[in-house]
């Protein structure tokens, strides 16, 4: 039961962190001169990819976590995998949004 709580907590917390980076409205100067902010964003992207891999492993037929009999966890893994694709695209697109400014 505790492992399931950790699974959902980490999944939802990662999505909230991605949402924070998207809506925090950091400027180009923030990403250019604030090294800890850049590294925090990079670590978040790597962490999201690792959790997406975990969710994909749950969905595979011969994955490590496929012996789970609970269908709710399998459906939530599908949801979180789709949500992580959107969230990672959001977070990776932050620095590219500055290139599209009008001159």
> Counting H and I runs of at least 4 residues, what is the number of helices?
4
Structural class: mainly alpha
Helix content: over 70%
What is the chain-wise order of helices and strands?
Answer: HHHH
Bulk shape: elongated
Q: Beta fraction of the residues?
A: under 5%
Unreliable sequence segments: none
The major β-sheet equals: none
Number of structurally distinct domains:
1
Number-wise, the strands total: 0
Radius of gyration: 16 Å
Question: Average pLDDT, to the nearest integer?
Answer: 79
Gap from first CA to last CA: 55 Å
Keywords: Membrane, Transmembrane, Transmembrane helix
Transmembrane segments: 6-22, 43-60, 72-91
What do these coordinates show?
With 103 residues, the chain is mostly helical. It has one domain. The protein is 73% helix and 0% strand. The chain is built from 4 helices and no strands. The longest helix is centred in the middle third of the chain and has 25 residues, at 35-59. The chain crosses the membrane at residues 6-22, 43-60, 72-91. Keywords: Membrane, Transmembrane, Transmembrane helix.
Strand-helix topology:
Layout: H1 2-23, H2 28-33, H3 35-59, H4 71-92
Transmembrane segments: 6-22, 43-60, 72-91
Keywords: Membrane, Transmembrane, Transmembrane helix
Give a quick set of tags describing it:
single chain, 103 residues, mainly alpha, 73% helix, transmembrane helix, membrane
């Amino acid at each position: 039961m505790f492992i399931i709580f950790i699974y959902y907590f980490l999944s939802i917390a990662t999505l909230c962190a991605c949402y924070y980076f998207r809506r925090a409205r950091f400027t180009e100067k923030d990403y250019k001169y604030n090294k800890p902010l850049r590294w925090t964003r990079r670590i978040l992207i790597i962490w999201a990819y690792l959790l997406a891999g975990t969710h994909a492993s749950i969905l595979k037929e011969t994955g490590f976590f496929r012996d789970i009999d609970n269908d709710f966890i399998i459906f939530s893994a599908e949801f979180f995998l789709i949500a992580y694709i959107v969230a990672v695209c959001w977070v990776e697109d932050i620095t590219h949004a500055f290139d599209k400014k009008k001159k």
